[in-house]
Design goal:
alpha+beta, five-stranded mixed beta barrel, about 50% strand
């Protein structure tokens, strides 16, 4: 297992699903870029309530960062070119809203460490 930290933008809206046992989970896709400006599609699944709620609160194109276990994969596009992708089981989701809420909680004159 690889522990990963991914930053990118949500592709489409996240969706809530239910497994055969009646347990809920959320799936989403994130577009991330590396230093060379190459794009990677990250297929995200979240099981925890906080991570699911954070994903569902976002809209297409919103920026976010995720942590969790990462699995590298390869897929072939319509032109036959193989491309990398990543599967992430998200344990935590951080958005710009979370950062601004934490800053407001500290007060206008305080600094984040």
């Amino acid at each position: 297992m690889i522990d990963g930290l991914i930053a990118g933008r949500l592709m489409g809206d996240a969706s809530r699903r239910t497994d055969k046992m009646g347990r809920g989970y959320t799936v989403a896709r994130v577009l991330a870029r590396n230093k060379a400006d190459e794009e990677f599609i990250v297929n995200v699944i979240a099981f925890g309530d906080a991570a699911c709620a954070a994903l569902l609160a976002l809209a297409d194109g919103d920026a976010l960062s995720l942590t969790g276990s990462l699995t590298p994969k390869v897929w072939t596009d319509k032109q036959g070119i193989t491309r990398p992708s990543l599967d992430l089981v998200a344990t935590q989701v951080l958005t710009a809203f979370d950062v601004s809420r934490k800053q407001a909680a500290l007060g206008a004159g305080d600094q984040l460490d």
